[in-house]
Amino acid sequence: MRLALEGVDCYYGEVQILKEVSLHVDAGEIVGLLGRNGAGKTTTLRAIMGLVRPRSGTIRLDGTDLGRLRPHEIPGRGIAYVPQGRRLFPHLTVEENLRMGLLVRGGGADTLEPVLGLFPMLGERLRQRAGTLSGGQQQMLATARALCARPEFLLLDEPGEGLMPTLVGRLLDTIVALKARRVGVLLVEQKVDAVLRVADRVALIENGRIARHATPAELAAEPEVLLRYVGVRR
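Given the sequence above, the corresponding structure tokens read:
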């Protein structure tokens, strides 16, 4: 199974944000999308979810043209999105937030149990209101809720934002566990070292264009590339 963008152009009003973006994620593959602020990373994820409509180009999940679907239909096809800022239901409990994820594809206890196995901390807080969790716990809940939809592909936008290094490490371990389950992951993250630790491939985006595809090993051997496109030196 493959999620693929081909020649995607997206605009906000008359301002073009994405310019002929082409990239793909295969089942069981982790692809990092790196770039400076404003380069188009979040817009790429929003375009996949139908929240921004491309003016040209295609976004396909195998043979399905996602551009023909309404945004609320896309999660049911097997794509889950954890946006920046988590966007939980703060006044609902942990369990109620998870059940919102289960509704997407009709999951039950057989779906919830393995998700809680990835995040045992959540199993201890099922009756706690989501808004009272710490930032790291809320990120885990947002990711767990997405996984309750039994996705074939998971889109993560800045999951490590504001988290302590130990929690970032735990989140990365979860992403690697998803790879073993053949879930494809498209990861947007400012913590470059975190992306290079888990990604199979990296796409570098600059001013709305994919400037380069590379492996983590290739980027480690060419530190000036990261400095140019991301503004960091390893």
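The first helix runs from residue 41 to 48. Try to locate this feature in the token string yourself.
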